[in-house]
């Protein structure tokens, strides 16, 4: 694998990831939902995210997004520590 430099905050260089933001915003947050707390938001989001994950994968149409993610999960690296924003 060869590293390829990209410019931070430039969506056209990282389109596969950053193009998903408007897609998911439109699918999940239009119209804008309101919740009393984070737990209520997560309870509302879970079934909607699961429904999206059960769609066909864009590059492996014989599999779902969730199935491909399960294969990739083993390759993910742990965060190491919590982000303190």
UniProtKB/TrEMBL annotation:
Organism domain of life: Bacteria
Name of the protein described by the UniProt record: Transposase
